[in-house]
Write a structure and sequence with these properties.
Length: about 350
């Protein structure tokens, strides 16, 4: 039985198998050419290649740190959305009441107002996560063959925004929202207008209104931060040059590695001529390992640059949104049959 770590290793190996095959073809071609054509002059010294390898390692490390920073910032933003959403749900239930109204509403009518605000907030989260999943021209990781073959797609790729938000808002609100380019912002505007009307009716005390407006302000701030990460990519000159530098190193590596193994083999030609003659072929596994490490590190950085793209390594905003929805609707007193289930985990991946 595979352990989880072992399974992850095989997943990684499968994820990079096309590149590994390419590395194998490259080094077998180089070794065969060197061995059968006796091209002993075809080599470069280690010093310039070591300098290139060091530079590549630095830029890949910088890229990975920057990509991780973007992922971690995105996770903190959506962690803030979780906390602020729970605060909003609590405030609406406690601050909307008949304490300062001239014409008291029934409990059923109060619950209706609370439900409208809560459901509109769920619609806001739905619109925001759909907005974050719209692919940008620089988001290409999901198009890679190994990402497509596992069919690891977020729920937003399998549904539409219109279908997902329609159950949570009125027909008038739906028509208004769909006429706007930034639908999540429009939903927060509606929330603010609704709270203003409740204040005018006395259903929300003035200081409570200010508290609720501050929550909406925080949601707008978190939305803006999330949109900033989505709409501003990791600088393309860094990302593109890193990729080219990595391939320059990988393609030049055989010119230094093959002569080194040939020299090592020649050092014991007198004592063991057979192994000495074939020792050059040991270049193949070592080249594949070194190239695989450099390429995989670079690819991990590229995959992590866009934390909302919809790949297996992204921030699971769909799962986070659905988790908040479940919490809010449970606290409204809805039954388990009414509340949607959490999105399915596939191949240990949440979206």
């Amino acid at each position: 039985m595979y352990t989880k770590k072992t399974f992850t290793f095989f997943q990684m190996a499968s994820w990079t198998r096309f590149e590994t095959l390419l590395f194998t073809i490259i080094i077998v071609a180089w070794v065969s050419t060197y061995y059968f054509l006796d091209l002993v002059w075809l080599k470069i010294p280690w010093t310039p290649l070591a300098l290139i390898g060091t530079a590549v390692a630095f830029v890949i490390g910088f890229q990975n740190n920057a990509a991780y920073g973007r992922i971690w910032e995105a996770r903190k933003i959506w962690g803030g959305i979780v906390n602020t959403s729970r605060t909003f749900g609590m405030f609406t239930q406690d601050m909307i009441n008949n304490e300062h109204t001239e014409i008291p509403l029934s409990k059923k009518e109060l619950d209706r107002e609370i439900k409208i605000l809560t459901y509109r907030h769920i619609a806001w989260m739905t619109a925001l996560r759909h907005s974050m999943r719209v692919l940008k021209p620089w988001e290409t990781a999901a198009k890679h063959k190994t990402n497509k073959e596992w069919d690891l797609n977020p729920p937003e790729f399998k549904s539409t925004l219109e279908k997902d938000i329609e159950p949570y808002i009125s027909a008038i609100d739906f028509k208004y929202i769909m006429s706007k380019s930034n639908k999540q912002t429009a939903l927060l505007y509606l929330q603010s207008h609704h709270l203003q009307s409740l204040k005018e009716k006395g259903l929300v005390w003035e200081f409570s209104f200010l508290e609720l407006e501050n929550v909406l302000k925080e949601l707008l701030t978190l939305q803006g931060k999330s949109e900033r990460i989505k709409n501003f990519p990791y600088p393309r000159h860094f990302a593109t040059l890193n990729h080219f530098f990595m391939w320059i190193f990988v393609l030049l590596l055989p010119l230094a590695l093959i002569p080194q193994f040939a020299e090592i083999g020649g050092s014991f030609a007198d004592s063991n001529p057979l192994i000495s003659n074939l020792f050059i072929w040991f270049t193949i596994p070592f080249y594949i390992i070194v190239s695989w490490v450099f390429h995989t590190m670079e690819r991990i950085g590229r995959t992590g640059e866009n934390p909302f793209e919809g790949t297996a390594n992204d921030v699971p905003i769909s799962t986070i949104s659905r988790g908040i929805e479940i919490d809010l609707r449970q606290n409204l007193g809805e039954s388990e049959e009414e509340i949607p289930k959490q999105f399915t985990v596939k191949l240990n991946t949440q979206f």
